[in-house]
Design goal:
The protein has 12 helices and 8 strands. It is α/β, with parallel strands linked by helices. It has 2 domains: 124 residues, Rossmann fold, CATH 3.40.50; 104 residues, 3-Layer(aba) Sandwich (Rossmann fold). Strand 1, helix 1 and strand 2 form a beta-alpha-beta unit.
Length: 261
Amino acid sequence: MTAPTIQRARTPLAFDDRPVAKRVGLVVLATDHTTEPDFRRMVASDEIAIYTARIAYANPTTPENLRRMQPRLADGAALILPEESLDAICYSCTSASVVIGDDVVEAAIRQAKPDVPVVTPPLAAVQALKAFGARRISVLTPYTVETSTPLTGYFAAHGIEVANLACFGLEDDRVMARVTPQSIVAAAVEATAPDADALFISCTALRAAGVAAQIEDAIGRPVVTSNLATAWACLRHCGMVEARPELGRLMTLPGPDGRAA
C-alpha cells in the first residue's frame, strides 16, 4: 500500500479571542453530584462555558472536615485553564465557605486566578437576600445541628436576622444529593416562619435550585438556594442580564454589581 501524501494546509487561519465568549470556573468537592448539573442548566450556554476542578474531600460533613479543604483551594483553581483568565470562579461549598471565611477562600483562589471575581455560596446568598430587601429569614439545611449553627452567626454578621433554622441532620453530602426534590419542597414549606421575609436553602449538594420557583409559589415569598445564588452571581459577572423567572424570582433581579436584568 502506498503511503498517503501528508502536507501542511495552506489555507490561512483566523482565530477567535476565545473558543467561547465567557468562562466560569467551578471548584467543587470530589463528592459533589449537584453543582455541575445545576450550572449546566442555569449558566451554561453558547456564550458561557463551564470549567470544573474537583478537590479532595472526605465525609462526614463537619466543621473540621470542611476546614481541611482550605489548603487545596489554590491548587484546585490553578487546574482551571492554567494561565488563562476567567469571568468568574465559584467555590461551590456553602458550609465550608462559612467556616473557612469568604475572605480566606477568595485569597486562596486568587493565588491561582488573580483579579477574577470569586463567588462563594453564602456571600452570593447574602447579596441575593439583600437584593430582595430581606432582613429576617428562615433557613433550611441538610446538615447536622453542629454544621448548621455557624450559618446563624454568618447571616447576623451581614445584617440579616435568622428567624428560625431547620436541618435534616445528614452527615454525608452524597446522601444530601439524593434527597428528592419533592421532599425539599415539603420541608421548605414547613421551615418557613410566618414572619420571615424570605427562605434560604443551604448546601450546594441539595437539588433545591430546580424547585425554587415551586417553593416560592407555595410560600408566597422569595427563595434563595446555594446554587441558585451562585449561578445568579456568575451570570451577572458575565454580563448576562436576561430575566429568567422560570428559575425563580432571583433570576429577575440585578446582580451583585447592580446591573439590571
